[in-house]
Design brief:
The complex is a heterodimer of chains A (about 425) and B (about 160).
Chain A: H1 12-23, E1 27-29, H2 37-49, E2 56-59, H3 62-65, H4 69-77, H5 92-99, E3 109-112, H6 119-127, E4 132-135, H7 149-164, E5 174-177, H8 189-205, E6 210-216, H9 221-238, E7 243-249, H10 259-275, E8 280-282, H11 295-310, H12 323-335, H13 341-351, E9 368-372, E10 378-383, H14 402-409, H15 411-417
Parallel strand pairs in A: 1-8, 2-3, 4-5, 5-6, 6-7, 7-8
Antiparallel strand pairs in A: 9-10
Chain B: E1 13-17, H1 26-37, E2 41-44, H2 51-60, E3 65-70, H3 75-87, E4 97-101, H4 111-119, E5 124-126, H5 131-141, H6 151-155
Parallel strand pairs in B: 1-2, 1-3, 3-4, 4-5
The chains are: A alpha/beta (about 425), B alpha/beta (about 160).
Chain lengths: ~425, ~160
């Protein structure tokens, strides 16, 4: 551990989430991050004060994400705008000043970043007295840069061990996988579920005992419900001796531009979370389509989600269309490749056993493709070498065109921005 | 949606890239398809491209166009340095160089941002609803072959 002093409120995130799970409360969380410490602090205070059960977020900037700490420091010194809080470049006192009196057992704060080499970020968050972050060796590598997968796997194994070392102080650090997002849209749910479970297992094998498994809202409420239930079933089987919960992300693709459409989408995400027994939801705001949202826009989204959650109840899974079976088959095929899960993940991508549609990273095989079916669901059009365990009825793929891609990317935005959708769910 | 151009015998070559901190790739995939449909051969450098990688790729085989697409809000901060680095290479001094997307975190592109990008060597700054039509118009204005009039003249 880099800090000589014990972290003051360590274990806060784990304990808060465990309590919420016991009482069946949906915890809502923003993706908030500002470079200016005073504004960051105001954002945390506003999140805590929102009419909802909330946890706070420090979302880091893109320079910090790619490890260019000098550029982040230079931009701050020159008063330039960054798209998040440059945690590594700030001195520790600045960050503890942002958190002082705000962060604690009743309001834990998680660091969100997107880095394939998170070592310095983990050091800095532990030094600042925090104990929770997110990401993963695959989910923060393949979709987000050009770091080789093997490098990311090594860096994430080290970062896991460094975060897990907090346990020696009696705290219970928490790590969330971003594996349920993969490019934000157009990834069939079975692959999202498999990656979420595999990364959760990776964290567990590197010493973490408190993890969360993510799933990002896609295009079909029924398919999403089936997927989250599948995620919970696989987690129950593959994560024994682990405290885990499911976190739902409000839609991570092209976001509606209308305020009504954007808020309806986040409300649907909240209902998805409650109906499937997820414990936490990360929201998006009506500003998302155009720019980095303000504090107030974040609070509105949090309260909209919490209100929607209050009207929903847990529901049984919808009839199966095979999401769980596909996800199980993918997970088991990967686990058979190597005893070391990191090596298994590297081999899985090399063989195309894991293959993320539309991902440009050199370590992704790029033989699998997805499409939006007539039923409004994400389906495979090409399965490449994916071991899905059953024949998958794939529609002969038409040539991918720029307008076809744009149409698919805008599917959700168009549906939620359509005024007619106010009368009921369109499509 | 967009008219297809016939693929010429030797297609014009575009390098498609983004700034070093930007992880977004849907914009790059869309632009790759769009340029290919217009008859261009595209080298898509993917996410988070260090300026050195772009310069190396573009120097190894001088392209007929360099397109920088970025949507993470850091374009105003990072793209000027990219433009200057490209223009500092003699072989790339005249290659048409355009930038577009969401260039700062406010959602609007201020006039001084536009000016700083053109000062840094960009021939066009394409944002908002006109970004794609603007790029298509620019492609139409470019000569078929690099050995004609100056590319820079064609897009300015």
């Amino acid at each position: 551990m880099p800090s000589a002093e014990p972290a003051p409120a360590a274990g806060a995130f784990h304990r808060f989430m465990a309590d919420a799970a016991r009482t069946g409360t949906l915890v809502v969380q923003p993706r908030m991050g500002f470079a200016d410490p005073a504004r960051m602090r105001r954002g945390l205070i506003a999140t805590r004060a929102a009419d909802a059960t909330t946890v706070g977020t420090l979302t880091l900037d893109s320079f910090t994400r790619v490890g260019d700490y000098a550029a982040a420091a230079r931009a701050v010194a020159q008063g330039h705008h960054l798209n998040g809080y440059p945690l590594v470049s700030m001195d520790r006192e600045t960050t503890t000043g942002v958190l002082d009196g705000v962060h604690g057992p009743g309001f834990p704060v998680q660091v969100r970043h997107g880095s394939a080499r998170p070592g310095r970020i983990v050091e800095a968050l532990v030094a600042a007295g925090l104990d929770a972050t997110e990401g993963g060796p695959v989910s923060y590598c393949l979709p987000y840069g050009r770091t080789p997968l093997a490098t990311s796997v090594r860096a994430w194994a080290e970062a896991c061990r460094s975060l897990a070392a907090l346990r020696e102080t009696g705290a219970e650090p928490h790590l969330e996988t971003f594996g349920g997002c993969m490019l934000g849209q157009l990834c069939p749910p079975s692959l999202l579920v498999a990656l979420s479970v595999l990364e959760g297992m990776f964290f567990r094998r590197h010493g973490l005992r408190s993890v969360s498994l993510s799933y990002a809202q896609q295009i079909s409420p029924e398919q999403d419900e089936e997927a989250v239930h599948a995620l919970r079933a696989l987690a129950a089987d593959h994560l024994p001796d682990t405290s885990w919960h499911v976190v739902v992300y409000a839609y991570m693709g092209v976001y509606p531009e209308t305020r009504a459409g954007a808020l309806r989408l986040v409300a649907d995400a909240a209902r998805l979370a409650v109906r499937t027994g997820a414990t936490r939801l990360i929201v998006k705001t009506p500003a998302e389509s155009a720019r980095i949202p303000s504090v107030e826009e974040n609070v509105t989204a949090l309260e909209t989600a919490a209100t929607a959650a209050r009207t929903a109840r847990p529901a049984p899974p919808p009839p199966s269309t095979g999401v769980e079976a596909e996800a199980r088959s993918l997970v088991e095929a990967v686990l058979h490749l190597h005893d070391d899960l990191g090596q298994a993940l590297i081999r899985a991508f090399a063989h195309g056993y894991l293959d993320v549609p539309f991902c440009l990273h050199p370590d992704n095989a790029g033989r699998a493709r997805s499409f939006i079916s007539d039923r409004g669901r994400l389906e495979w059009s090409r399965t490449g070498s994916l071991p899905l365990g059953r024949p998958v009825a794939a529609t002969p793929s038409r040539r991918l065109t720029s307008s076809g891609l744009l149409h698919a990317l805008n599917h959700v935005k168009n549906r939620y921005d359509d005024p007619a959708a106010l009368l009921g769910r369109a499509g | 949606m967009y008219p297809h151009h016939q693929l010429p015998d030797s297609p014009r070559h575009a390098v498609l890239t983004t700034i070093a901190s930007d992880s977004h790739t849907w914009n790059l995939l869309f632009l790759q398809l769009l340029l290919e449909e217009q008859g261009w051969e595209v080298t898509n450098l993917g996410a988070c491209v260090p300026v050195g990688v772009l310069v190396e790729e573009a120097t190894a085989r001088t392209p007929d166009l360099i397109v920088v697409s970025t949507v993470n809000g850091h374009g105003a901060e990072e793209a000027p340095g990219l433009g200057r680095a490209v223009r500092a290479v003699p072989a790339l001094a005249e290659v048409p160089l355009v930038v577009g997307g969401k260039l700062d975190i406010s959602g609007t592109t201020a006039p001084d941002v536009h000016a700083s990008l053109t000062d840094a060597g960009f021939d066009a700054v394409l944002t908002g609803a006109n970004a794609v039509p603007g790029l298509l118009a620019l492609l139409d204005a470019l000569p078929e072959h690099r050995h004609g009039r100056s590319h820079a003249d064609a897009v300015r």
